[in-house]
Amino acid sequence: MTTEEDFEKLTYTQRLKAAVHHTTLQICKEHADEKNVQLNKMVVAAISETTWKKCEQFATDLELFAKHAKRSTINADDVKMLIRKTPKLLDYINGVQEELNASKPEPKKRSKKGKGKQTSVGASTSPSDQTEPVIVEEES
Amino acid sequence: NLDIYFTFLNYAVFKTLCFFYFQKTVQHILQQYFKDEKTKVNADALALLTEVISIFVAEAVGRTTKQAKKDGDDELTLEQFEKILPQLLLDF
To answer: Name one Pfam family in it (chain A) (predicted).
Structure first.
């Protein structure tokens, strides 16, 4: 029975790896077309394998970060800690997060807050690092 | 003019869908390697992480291309990828 389970797990892993390879190939094709270079199948396979190993590292790290914060759900802050080594990347990801938050509907403001509070919420949304729900909670 | 608009819109929708499907793949990969069964990923975090992984692949290809141009090659080789790999791993 366990060999069957192992086999299923193996084929599941194979399928996931194939999915990663497919997406890697897509991204590589786009970039290679832009820069007018020929792609090599071995290079794409190597990139795909490296990405897979990186995902494994990310998974372990993210889980540890969440556990350290005594949470069981991985947060956007955990992801940002993951990419702390490159400041430019961190800035870009902060930008992406702001875009994502901007396209979501705003969280409802609680009824206990007076009109005066609303202006201060507007002022405090300028620092880019914090997400909107955190800011709303801080004002209460 | 309208044709161009629709082509762009279709392309944008296509890209969003591809990104969405890749997010699902990433989620499954993460769940394979979690040591605790209870660990889950936030929707925001998943989107950001997928973006990071896409950038990782883009950097890998981009740096290998740079190396290829330096060497005067028209085709990407494993040697060039191996040359840029250490710094790539250190940066991520």
So the answer is: CENP-S
The lowest-confidence range among A1-15, A83-97, A115-129, B2-16 is A115-129
Judge: A28–B32 Cβ closer than 8 Å, yes or no.
no
- Which sign, positive or negative, has the C-alpha torsion B22, B28, B33, B34? positive
Q: How many CB pairs under 8 A join A and B?
A: 152
ipTM of this predicted structure: 0.85
Distance CA B22, CA A121 (A): 35
Q: Of A103, A63, A98, give the one whose Cα is nearest residue A79.
A: A63
Please tell me the distance in Å from B1's CA to the nearest CA on chain A: 24
CB-CB under 8 Å, B76 with A43 = yes
Handedness of CA A7, A8, A14, A17 (dihedral sign): negative
| Euclidean distance between CA atoms A115 and B52, whole angstroms | 39
- Closest Cα in chain A, distance from residue B3 (Å): 23
Distance, in Å, from the CA atom of A66 to the CA atom of B24, rounded to the nearest integer, reads 20
Q: With CA atoms as reference, report the closest residue to B16 among B60, B52, B53, B47.
A: B47
What residues in A contact B56, CB-CB < 8 Å?
A: 51, 54
pTM for the model stands at 0.77
What gap in Å lies between CA A12 and CA B34, rounded to an integer?
15
